Amino acid sequence: MRIFANTSARTRNSAAIRDGLSGRLEMTLHVLDAVVLTRDVPAHGLRTGDLGAVVEIYGSNSVGVEFVAASGRTQALVTLPPGDLRSVADDDLVSVRPRSARS
User: Could you tell me where the beta strands, DSSP code E, fall in 1-103?
Assistant: First the structure.
């Protein structure tokens, strides 16, 4: 599945140059790809920047993503629009934080 994600100057590559006017980069998602959340999802205790894995692609407008705790226990399994996700960048760091309180 191909989606379009907003890109910043630090993540632009040749694909972004081909579409430099819109600042959008074509991104292809596959099951088991690592992705980064681009917005908070407080109902599931998720924050911008949390790392997840694509577990299902339901079509062009929804993706099933699993977020896990450091122990490997599932924190959340959510269906999100592709615009709420971005690819993992080479300069992204993984960190550990306590689970957010659910609203």
Answer: 2-6, 24-28, 34-37, 51-59, 62-68, 74-80, 85-87
The distance in angstroms from the start CA to the end CA of the chain is: 32
**DSSP strand pairing (85-87 vs 74-80):** unpaired
Does the pTM surpass 0.85? The reply is no
Domains and CATH numbers, the chain: 2-87 (2.30.30)
Contacts of 23 by beta carbon, 8 Å cutoff, 6+ apart: 6, 7, 16
Percentage of the chain modeled with pLDDT above 90: 58
- Tell me how far the alpha carbon of residue 58 is from its chain's centroid: 15
Cβ neighbours for 102, distance < 8 A, ≥ 6 positions apart: 42, 43, 44, 45
